Amino acid sequence: MSVLAPILVLAILIFVHELGHFAAARFQGIRVNRFSLGFGPALVKYQGKETEYAIRALPLGGYVGFPDEDPDSQIPKDDPNLLSNRPIFDRAIVISAGVIANLIFAYFLLVSQAATIGIPDIQYQPGVKVPQVMTEETSAAYKAGIKAGDIIIAVEGEKLEANERAIKSLMATIQNSPDRNIELTISRGEEIKTIEVIPTPDENGQGKIGVMLQPNNEVIRTRPENILQAFSIGANEFERITKLTFEGFGQLLSNFQETAQQVAGPVAIVAVGAQIAQNDIGNMFQFAALISINLAIINSLPIPALDGGQLVFLAIEGLSGKPVPNKLQEGIMQTGLVLLLGLGMFLIVRDTANLEFFQQLF
What we know:
By secondary structure, the chain is an alpha+beta fold. It has eleven helices and ten strands.
């Protein structure tokens, strides 16, 4: 069930995105002949009065099709309700509607969470928790006397502050100190004691001591006093997540070589979502909002086959006074689609190979 939750989230977000395009076209009286979730051969399809609705085999997105793009369409090329015959502004609305739909949906997800179970607020305490110690003879922490429930409050005499960076600082010190003595200050109930531990090198030469670590924090859910405050809290959380997402993309662009490995595909997203659903199903609101905002930003990028790439074509048409030739557009868009599908398949294979249960097969 925990795996089905993130899969359902991804399907809903893709549906919302494509529904944005579809609704923007229909509200303007523009003809639409296809509404598909996924690519490739149709698994299920239904032919409506004008539009074919389908779920397809490759779950790597979706698309809304227009008669303009269909060589077998019987609709005259000069029909005023064809997308290509509409003013640039009308077409821009249709193209950007998917991104707008994802952003609006993310906002209302966060408002719904605020109004029902509350937005989690993380309050950090000094130090890093040790929830589990490996009891094997190779565990340096077990030999040194570290116990589950201990809180590491200082490393080499330097205090671990009350923030999210404390655990990263501790892990870095351990990994960079194979076969070297480390002095840890431990809080155990009312007792403060100093323990010396020598990290053992792993297969990559990095130090490890055989413990699980987690931030020393407490999660308090912020609930609104009334429905109007829920909209305000939802807006603040929407702003926070959007800002963090842009910062993540900024780090990817400025330090691509080191951060490219952190790019996640559908399998990794489902794995993370499954873990979230298993730990606290209420956090799926924020998970869905985060993915929805990411989808909106990615689709806004000026890349062929994405909404941003199509908006670039419209901008060129607006500046030059004439559209980019259809054959050139089709060639660029098809190339972009192939590259995106190839990247999607690569991420699926890589992330599947990195799953714990998959690695245990070998």
